[in-house]
């Protein structure tokens, strides 16, 4: 029995998103600097560990590239769906974004051990819920500057995003359909799950911080 054409289109969109998301930019940046980032610091390939090992400039580059994976997963997924004759824009965006997020977190060529999904998730949200993610990113910056702990900033921004997409939808400030809201809530749940060890360290007061130790005064 011949399968409906939309199944082929959405499968192609998901696979395109997954392949984009599975590009391990943190690992490649590490190799560019002669370091296997998986053996240093937290051993994660995300931008936080890149920052910790290689410095802020490389960390920002890694964040931007991981962010683009999520954004392009949505945009190129929509383009591919149209090329294949499928016009369900919202569903195509969701499949492309979900593919990119899962590719980032579970890349098959790294034995499904990838990043935590914050930057890539922000990228896909940027393509589907613009103002909520802009506000969530501002919250991330505020929390990181206030606490110097990336895990607090990431979890706080993710929780804020989950609430903001519902608020914007209910108030009619931006068109965000419930399928997109559900995807973002699932994404936030995954981000919290991927940060479970960070949460345990936070509760124990042992989470890593980027705060510089206070300079010791010299005794005259």
Task: Give, in order, the helices and strands.
Answer: HHHHHHHHHH
Return the average pLDDT rounded to an integer.
91
SS class: mainly alpha
**Could you give the distance between the termini?**
88 Å
Calculate Rg over CA atoms: 19 Å
* Helical residues, percent: over 70%
- Uncertain residue segments: 215-220
**Most strands sheet:** none
- Principal-axes geometry comes out as globular
Number of helices: 10
Overall strand count: 0
* Strand coverage percent: under 5%
Short structural summary:
This protein is mostly helical and 220 residues long.
Can you lay out the helices and strands and say which pair or pack?
Elements: H1 5-21, H2 25-32, H3 47-54, H4 56-83, H5 89-105, H6 118-128, H7 130-147, H8 150-171, H9 178-194, H10 196-204
Helix pairs in contact: 1-4, 1-5, 3-4, 4-5, 4-6, 5-6, 5-9, 6-7, 6-9, 7-8, 8-9
What does the model show?
This protein has 220 residues and is an all-alpha fold. It has helices at residues 5-21, 25-32, 47-54, 56-83, 89-105, 118-128, 130-147, 150-171, 178-194, 196-204. Residues 215-220 have low confidence and may be disordered.
């Amino acid at each position: 029995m011949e399968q409906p054409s939309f199944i082929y289109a959405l499968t192609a969109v998901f696979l395109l998103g997954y392949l984009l998301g599975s590009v391990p930019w943190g690992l490649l940046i590490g190799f560019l600097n002669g370091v296997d980032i998986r053996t240093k610091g937290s051993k994660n390939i995300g931008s936080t560990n890149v920052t910790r090992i290689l410095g802020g400039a490389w960390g920002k580059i890694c964040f931007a590239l991981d962010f683009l994976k999520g954004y392009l997963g949505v945009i190129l997924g929509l383009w591919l769906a149209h090329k294949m004759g499928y016009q369900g824009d919202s569903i195509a965006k969701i499949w492309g974004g979900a593919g990119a997020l899962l590719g980032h977190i579970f890349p098959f060529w790294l034995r499904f051990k990838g990043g935590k999904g914050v930057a890539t998730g922000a990228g896909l949200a940027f393509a589907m819920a613009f103002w909520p993610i802009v506000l969530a990113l501002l919250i991330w910056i505020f929390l990181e500057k206030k606490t110097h702990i990336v895990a607090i900033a990431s979890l706080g921004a993710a929780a804020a995003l989950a609430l903001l997409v519902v608020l914007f939808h209910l108030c009619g400030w931006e068109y965000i359909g419930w399928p997109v809201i559900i995807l973002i809530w699932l994404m936030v749940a995954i981000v919290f799950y991927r940060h479970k060890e960070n949460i345990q360290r936070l509760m124990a007061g042992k989470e890593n911080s980027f705060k510089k130790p206070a300079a010791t005064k010299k005794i005259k």
